[in-house]
Design a protein that fits this description.
This protein is an alpha/beta fold and about 270 residues long. It contains ten helices and twelve strands. It has two domains: about 160 residues, 3-Layer(aba) Sandwich (Rossmann fold); about 80 residues. The mean pLDDT is about 95.
Length: about 270
Amino acid sequence: MRLRCAYTDLDGTLLGLGASLFTNHEGNFSMMQARALEACSRAGVEVVIMSGRRRVQVHEDARIIGQSSFIFEAGAAFSIDQELTVLTGEFDLDPERTVVRQISDRGVPELLFESFDGRLEFHEPWHLEREMSHLFRGEVETAEANRVLEENGHGDLRLLDNGAITRPMEGIETAHCYHLVPKGVSKAGAVAAHARARGYAREETIAIGDSVEDLQVAPSVGRFFVVANGPERDPGVKEAMCDYGNVSLTEGSNGEGFYEAVVTSLMF
């Protein structure tokens, strides 16, 4: 069955050092991502960004690579041809009181900061102007954080780990990016919903990523590729790979890994 859609994470996957489409993992100029995107275009394969970034950011990234679909805020919503689908469950998307505002009004960020003092903070400046998810950086166990949420009456929320980041944080060797979202929100759910809307069979899709959260997309696609830098920065990724039967590790990092995943999939 031919490939029809490739879902890809942005930071640490499609993008190279400095979050550039035209650098490799070391920051040197690279055309690997562009060549992979060209191969997808020639083969009629849709490329859908799945990112934790804000809507306006991901919209611009999708526009730059010539695509009309994108998934944003860690799977809280997706857009197809400018039609928005929100996946925040009981949390309504209200311009006057966004999901982020609803969560803030309950004091949840402050609860997490107090519970993990010195280990969690807002991921400045990218935590601003968000609609559906709070954005943090630090080093915490998500299972422990979600237990804190449950015990304090916030079981309708969850903290998810969106992978290691290069931004330094005092006292922490390798900081991670975390999203506080409505409990049902995930990249996996958004990918599955997008595929249904487009009419893609699971076997007609692949996904590429670098984090444990990205890996959860694996059951929703025919094949999942982890770029080499994922487990290099976060050993938890390598451990999580064992939970799925359709996951491959690329030899290349970042965009080189993205290229490898696309070319490999187009060969079959």
